[in-house]
Amino acid sequence: MSRKIVVFDTTLRDGEQAPGASMDHGAKLQLARQLARLNIDVIEAGFPISSPEDFESVKAIAAEVRGPSIAGLARALPKDVERCWEAVQHAQKPRIHTFIGTSKVHVEKRFGKTEAEVLQMAVDAVELACSLCNDVEFSAEDALRTSPEYLRDVVEATIAAGAKTVNIPDTVGYATPWQMHETITGLMENVPNIGDAVISVHCHDDLGMSVANSLAAVRAGAGQVECTVNGIGERAGNASLEEIVMALRTRKDEFDADTDINTREIMNTSRMVSTLTGFAVQPNKAIVGANAFAHEAGIHQHGMMQDRQTYEIMRPEDVGLTESVFTLGPRSGKHGLRMRLEKLGYSIAPDEMEEIYERFLSVADRKRRVYEEDLHVIMRQAATEDMPEVWHLERVQVTTGTSLKPMGLVVLRRNGDTITMVGHGNGPVDAVTDAIRRAVEMEELEMADYSVRGITRGQDALGEATIRVRLGDEEAVGQDASLDVIEASAQAYLNAVNSLLLREMSRDQGVDEDAPDPHVL
Ligand code: KIV
Ligand code: ZN
User: Fold this and answer.
1) Which residue range forms the structural domain that includes residue 448?
2) Contact residues of ligand 1, CB 6 A cut-off
3) Of 384, 412, 428, which closes a domain?
4) For 377-407, how does the pLDDT look when each residue is reduced to its tens digit (9 = 90+)?
5) Cα(first)–Cα(last) distance of the chain, in Å?
6) How confident is the model over 86-98, as pLDDT tens digits?
7) How far is 243 from 227, CA to CA, in rounded Å?
């Protein structure tokens, strides 16, 4: 019988750290529910001490989502561990995941400590976590640049302190598959109490080897892989969940290991992550790219017609690839819509259906066909509906043309007061964002990034705008989709402004200013 590999999904924590990938509370809950349908073993729901929003999301996921273990991240500090426990304690299966950097550069440069001091911090954090929670994971951050002897000591000591899982992260994506194999084998052969814990691996993709490195670790005996849907994550991202899972499933002969993942939910999950984060999947991406199962060349098509196995190593239906045209139109009923949404992985409370249906009708009225991708957008918009808003966009209007200087007009509302403002720019989006910037009195606000993409096919595709803004050292991302890209851009820009303002307000309410990005070396 093949070994079961535990799949630990960190899309909601490490994936969400990708610049521009931030998800709001409603979106995170939707994704956590879908991860449960995917039959994931562990969901890392967030980093509770990092912000009140993250804390609330982890807490809500822990309280609602049944099936997977729900983990929260915590630095090896008592205040982090305690805050993490507060967030995950009501989960059916709570897990505290605590970590500290163990490479020389972390120990000496980042912390200004000795190896013995860092080891003691790791042990103290694990002991504290074990006094609160039955399931504790420890990560030796930057393990692949840690001296093998010290790494062994840390692994042995944290297992002795009670960690049930010890994770070996390649934090900076530096490892090769051979080195990873050797590192895990070295731990398996030299750490006396290794049998008392599951060894895990967590790879980043800076050199494009994260999946290969994860698989090399599995071959060497790792029992857990940490990964993200679509491989999203900071910099080049994390190891991609769907690639690891399908490699293990398709090449059982090589690994003698498999997962419990319901692979037929892979496409739904991938599309949901893409819509919720605004990160498009490249067409040639393995497993979930639009071309992953497309056979264009005549010679391939001919071979496929005779026997699918000629050119196909996996069946599209095994990853849940189905025809994505949604055939209902403006006269479709609520029942049909609900069934389709449920098939896509969304669970809808009875009191939410009316509003979702209204949104569906307003899209269906303006489009000839509604695609699955449109439904993902409708669901994201419905999920963000209850988000607190500082400024509300009432109206947007532009005048532009070949010999005209583009002019934008916006009407915004805040606390019942309405303001109308005009702006100018090099193009219609520039003019509208200029008007918003003036209205909200944030003259120094810079547009760091702007992209717009068609979500579905054809002339009547929804256009999705993603905008990153910068104010001094602070950045925020806003997104919106609409049939009108100017409207989507204005709303995306205002969403980014609102997110900056909300962050400022929550800081005023006293957040841990010291909570770092876990990847800052
Ligand atoms: O990459 C990394 O080292 C991490 C740890 C916090 C597990 O994300
Ligand atoms: Zn990471």
Assistant:
1) 392-508
2) 14, 99, 139, 141, 167, 169, 171, 202, 204, 518
3) 384
4) 788 777 666 667 899 999 999 999 888 899 9
5) 42
6) 999 999 999 999 9
7) 10
